[in-house]
Each structure stands twice: as structure tokens, then as C-alpha cells.
Amino acid sequence: MRSSFKHRLAIALGATLLGFTTFAPATLAADVTDIGYVDQAALSNIPSFISANRQLAAYKSGLDRQFVQAMHGVHDQNTQARIAQEFQNKLAVRQRDLFGPIFARAQVAIASVASSKNLSVVMDKRIVIYGGQDVTSNVADLLNGPGDPIPPVNTPPPSSVGFVDQTQIDAIPKLKAANDDFQKFQADEQAAAQTKLKAAKNDADRQAVLKDYQSALADKQKQEIQPLVDQTRDAIAGVAKKRGLLLVIDRSNLIYGGTDITSDVTSALK
Fold this sequence. Notes:
The protein is of the alpha/beta class.
């Protein structure tokens, strides 16, 4: 997936979304007082998260030993793949069991703090360059408290911050088709390049092969991906203006609140 169209589009779209995020910071600082942010890295240092990480590490250590034993003497690739998947599933289940309740508790704490401070949205600190209220310590205090955080009575108020779910945008037929086409093209080009590299007689020949490979991918990206990136950016900008939003971020950077414009954007792109 890291070499797929989805990842490339996500990178390009991420730059677009960052443009929305950093648009007119002076205006945001002066006119918007209902935006908060949380340093999730700092929250990972509270005792409950540290304890869960230690438990997961201990479980993984034992699981690794079991995996080595299970793979001993197994030469069939299909069987190896099945065993590996089984152990990955075990680790994923244990991780979910350990962290699920903690994440749920953290979400309630964030919602509670946001409600008490009249925040319409809380974002990840990583995307905040200027402005906003840091509520990390408030959330940490609730999580370190003796009891469970109390959920707010009210739902988040309307927000001038919008968000889109990239996974839903990636699923739009024309984007998925472009993704499939690009993946096939990349696989074919990579296979051809590997064949040429084996036949290369010196470093200069190998450098030429790699240069041609990278150039072919760049040309394909420019032809098939960039137009879709431009269309996505225009669709987001159009919806944001129509809905009166000050900025738009990716859902992965949103923690609480916000205005979901994913369906509007996907409709505009279809």
C-alpha cells in the first residue's frame, strides 16, 4: 500500500489539507476560540498506557517464541503464511483488548474537557502550527484520576472545522480504477527494471535503468494521479466555501467534533 496510488494521493491530498489548515492563521487566531488540540504522544506516557505497552511487549515476546517453534520444520509457503497470519491475529486481538478500553476512556475524557471549555473541535497537536487551546494536561488529569471520566451531556456544537475521510474518497470508482491501473503499471515497470539491472554491465548502466524507471513512474503519476489530486483539492475547496468552513483536515487528525464533509466531497467527485 505504501507504493500505491492511495498512498501517493494521500500524500498529495495531505499537502492540500495542510494548505487549508494553515490558511489565514491570523484570522483563525483572532476569530476562532473554540478549537483545541491534544498532544497524543504526551498522553501515551500516562501510567495506563505505559502499563498496556509493557503487557503487550511481554505478550509479543512469548508469542515470538511460540511462532519460532510453530515454524520449525515447515517448508510449505502457504502453511508458513497461514501460521504467520494466525500469530499476527493473536497479537492484534491482544492489542485491541489492552488498548481498546484505554482509548475509549481517553475519548470520553477529551469529549468531557471539550464540552467544559466550549470547544467545537479537538485536533492532533501534530498538525497545529499556530493558535488553538492545548487541553492535553486537562485530559491527562481526568485519565489519571481515580474514577472514570463522565461523558458530556451535549453533542459537539457546529464547527467551522471540516474533515474528510480519505478511505472513503479512495473508494470512489474512478480513483480506485486509477489506483489499480497505477499498481499494475508500477509492477510491470519494476519487473522490467529488475531484468535490465541483471543485464547491466556497470554502475552507469544500472543508474540509467533506475533513472528510466523513476521517470516512467513520474510521467504516469503526472498523467493519472495529478489530475485526480487537483479535482479532489477543488472539490474540497468548493464544499468548504459552500459550507462556510475556515479549514478542512483529514479525519485521522481529528479527535473530537468537526463537520464531516466527506459525502459532499465524494458526491462532487463522482
